[in-house]
Model the fold of this input.
Amino acid sequence: MNNNYQIAVDHDGKSIWKFLISELKPKGKFFTLFNIISLPIMLLGLGLIVIRFIYGIGSITNLTQETPWGLWIGFDVVTGVAFAGGAYVLTFMVYILNVHKYHSIVRVTVLNGFLAYVFYAGALLLDLGRPWHVVNPIIGNSFGVSSVLFLVAWHFLLYMIAQLIEFSPAIAEWLGAKRAHKILSGMTIAAVIFGITLSTLHQSGLGALYLMAKDKIHPLWYSEFIPIMFFVSSVFAGLSMVIFEGSISHKVFFSQISEKNHHAQNNIIRGLAKICAGTMFAYFFLKLLVFIHGQNWDLLNTPMGYWFLLEMLGFVFLPMTLFFYSYRTNNTTLIKVAAILTMLGVILNRLNVTVIGFRWDAAVHYIPSWMELVVTLAVIFTEIWIFRWVINRMPVLRDSPSWVNENK
Amino acid sequence: MDGFSYSDIFATKGIEYLVIIAFLALLIPFWIVLNKQSKMTRQIQSTLGVLSAKILRIPQGLFYGKNHTWMYMEKTGAAKVGLDDLLLHLTGKIKFRYLKPPGETINKGDLLAEIDQEGKLLRIFSPVSGKILDTNSLLNDSNGMLNDDPYGKGWIYKIKPSNWIEEANTCYFAEDATNWSAKELERFKDFLARTMKDYTPETAMIIMQDGGELLDHSLSALPDEIWKDFQNEFLNPDQL
Amino acid sequence: MGLDRRVFFKLLGATGITLAIGKETAAKPTDKSEVEFFGILYDSTRCLGCRTCEYECAAAHGLPEPPAEIEAVRTTNETCNTVVNTFQTSKGEVYVKRQCMHCNEPACGAACLTQAMHKNETGPVTWNGDKCMGCRYCMVSCPFDMPKFEFHSANPKIQKCDMCFDRQKAGEKPTCVTNCPNDALLYGKRRDLIKEARRRIYEKPDLYVDHIYGERDAGGTGWLYLSPVPFEELGMNTQLQQSSYPALTKGFLYSVPTVFVMLPTLLLGIHQATKNNNPKEENEDEQ
Done:
């Protein structure tokens, strides 16, 4: 009975503080290729952020009065969140539909999703003019309930909490906190349902942000259905990211994954490919419907029209057929290629709505500065560093400790 | 909106969000209470498994009487008699209230033994005629041996049969026995459905799982009246 | 199982009905105020292009003095609330003053998640620096591109015309109106201004184009325009929708509570229904 109250009892009797400090030390080689590339960029990014806070956003970005949102919003926030959609799709399949096939990758996907939201919401703070006022819509100083952004901001906050709860059993296993583990595992289904609801609303909400910019976004990309489009595309964007990131993690963290999970990997990727193919099929026809509804066919014969066709045919239709074909022929490599194409397509689509198609007719076209790119990369690399730290210490890819099954 | 004075098209949004928060907060206890079973049924259910035809043990070399007794002719010429697995799965743990003593002669259809569970009685009638050679002394001392091993250590009587061939012929054997046992299980479920309709849903939950599967030791949770009905329908000496 | 499904559908039905009723009552605007909007009528035919309004506005708001010599068509920016542009049109040189239109249902006001952009009861749309977090969503939403952001400041503010709200509270007229030498600007209740505008068009049909810009554009704006030439020739966007921009997000925002109620219930139901689907699979996993 006493065991329940002693955490860290598994760690040779070391106290919890010593354990945490020892976990902070780096494991493995320090001078890997990835580290050598990412560390200077992260430091440079840090420096640029300091400059941004002293001299204002304009000092390191190319934003103008006509294009107030650029790479940081269009890519970091909008696209990044779309890619984190794998978390809600997978938890839906595993916990709601009880498809146990994907159980082994749920944890790593939820971890990825959680980190993505934390870092992209964090990056958002860099883009705010007065970030210290970000507490205003949270603490009730002023609730702008008429705003879609209010909804999106709150959902981000709540979703991060839900994902943390979903992931917390892994943290409890790492710390050896058995009682906490039991309580947190019981909360999983509630957190999952809450998370899926929130995800549905904020994936579409990110699209709804642009609804009022009716005259400013190119007609081929603006419609009242942007929220639905964003939601549907977040499904296959998230799953493609799962395939992509899963393949990389599988190689890098090979030693941690159990035999059983190794063999299951191809089966899982195949299953995800099938779901992507189906969703993209529906998405393609949705886009077609919206296109017809908008009656903009004469715009197809313009440069922007060609760009639109490139996005639709090259980066939606093509990867869809690739997924379809590679699923049928069980060609894992082709699935990964299709996933990368899909991801590029989603990036393209989001940037088209938020940056390229937004004020496409402005006198001065917005092109991100190299400094914006560096900061974006620094954020991404920091996220990967934290991801690696967690994977190496907590039972995410590894199997859970044995006491978990007794706990049930 | 006439365009000349202030009107807020989002006036109720704040209240709506509060209603949503209230809904979600209430949904959790609502769902939990909806799905809650009483503590007792949960306890009972958690200790029992599911009773299905697949788990019944029916050794093929035995003869099975219609009242769920079995007999087996040993090399010595004595017939061992006992209760079959299905009956024991239905009743659960039982004690022997009355056992015919060795030395007595018995005819087919005579009272052979009385089994008891907390005052609920079932009468076992003999599938065979002959002289009782021995009774199993371990029966009432053991703890669940009868249910664990009804065909081996759980034998009840050793009888020297006087009319073996004719009486064994009226019993089920091998494959027929297996089929008959499965049918008996279904017949028991029907029996329950008929008699249970007068009882509360609570009691139904004790013997049935969520999916409608019969739970083990179903009779043990049911009252005496149902045991009497069970006696008439399944353990009737006239069927033998 | 039967019990669960029945209750589940009952719950769905009840919520659906409640929301349908609730939606009805929410659709009607509540609390119509008795106070009426004020606005400004700008008559381009009376404008001399002297740009006194620009200088007075800058002085009143502590902004740098506008340049003396101007060439190109200008827009407002983070140091300039209003500009007067010159256009060579079919009827000669025409001037047009541009600034925030103070829409009846401002997109910036609906967009602002901290209520920093606020439509006051009397009409002006003002910016509150204590609440603003500089997210620039108002800039994205405004169909006139009027809010301007101080990109090169560590404590940036949003700059735009505020219809001299402080002066109005003190019972005075906005600076530009007071200082216009030729009565090109008229300040009053929006209702009265529209009547006056119609009167001017009626009395001099050859002088004016028969259209009041801002009467219905973007759902109606506080700033109304009269012009001798079609408004496109003055660089003004006549393709704007004639209904309010916030109404475009109304559909989405009102579906949010619906989804919040239906989706968790639906998910709970599916979870319950599929719970017993794969009891065998778990055993296979463990082997």
